[in-house]
Design brief:
The complex is a heterodimer of chains A (188) and B (145). Chain A is mostly helical. Chain A has a domain of 78 residues. Helices cover 73% and strands 0% of the residues of chain A. In chain A, α2 packs antiparallel against α3 and α6 packs across α7. The longest helix of chain A is centred in the N-terminal third of the chain and has 23 residues. The C terminus of chain A is likely disordered. Chain B has one domain. The longest helix of chain B has 32 residues. Chain B is mainly alpha-helical and 145 residues long. Chain B is built from five helices and no strands. Classes of the chains: A mainly alpha (188), B mainly alpha (145).
Amino acid sequence: MEMFVDMVLMGLLGITAVAIVFTRHLFTATMLAGAYSLTCAALFVNLDAVDVALTEAAIGAGISTVLLLGTLTLTRRREKAHKGFSWPPFLVVAVTGALLLYGTVDMPAFGDPNSPGMRHVVPEYIAGTRDDIQIPNIVTAILASYRGFDTLGEAVVIFTALIGVLLMVGRRRPDDEEAGTRRPERHP
Amino acid sequence: MRHHLVLRVVSKLLIPFIILYGLYVQFHGDFSPGGGFQAGALVAAAIILYALIFGVDRARRVFSPAVLTVMAAAGVLLFALVGYAALLGGGNYLDYDYLLPSDTAGQHVGIITVEFGVGLTVTAVMALVFFAYAGRTDEIDDEDW
């Protein structure tokens, strides 16, 4: 049953992705990208990765769709027409895809408890979470405690991204309004 | 979207529950899926929904960008300071065992504190990034679509 749900969701993902590639209307593409993220979130739930699903639903389907819509208001609604088929990009994509497919051949089966990734530090983390940290959610224990330094790095990365965004587009410059790109502030 | 009555009423009902769910995901992260990052994304989604329905200007007054900027920095700082607290307790950086006399209690306090720091940062960053982009956009009329 799970396998069936997985296949249906993967099929939907494929259809959505192809639709995004082929549509020329950017509003449609944005909405389809949101739907793609929501399907992804459902797939993650089915794979028991609820943490990732929460993030995907909130950020992928929610926030990034809104940000894309905000960007759309600054640009055109339609993509420029293409000048036909060109071989080099097609070859790059085909070769990369073939290599990725070839790479999956060597991967251990999904959920295989004897795969190298599962045997290295994972048993230690599971036993440690049970005996030393004593919280039920191993994911939280790994993220916040065993990999605390990585998570600190992630928080710093997010903060740095904010600084970058604020430096580039956060300021409200008076000359923007003179140029007529923005309506005057109602609440300065 | 000032005249969308249904959207306004439904969002007014939903936003408190989204924020409540965010707080649940934040502070129940030790026991159920979730944690600081997911909670931050949820609360930020609530803020963005508010801004979409009631206007960016009003959202800026409710969730002041100045306060959000301080929040973003305070979250990272809180995380880093927990690391230094562990150093002062005699352990390695971010080794929560040394935060309290009991190792397990120290781990619990450490995890919940750093997750709270991550939650603060993610909420503030997502909302501020949205405000930064929305600030460049004119009010969208329905006819635009």
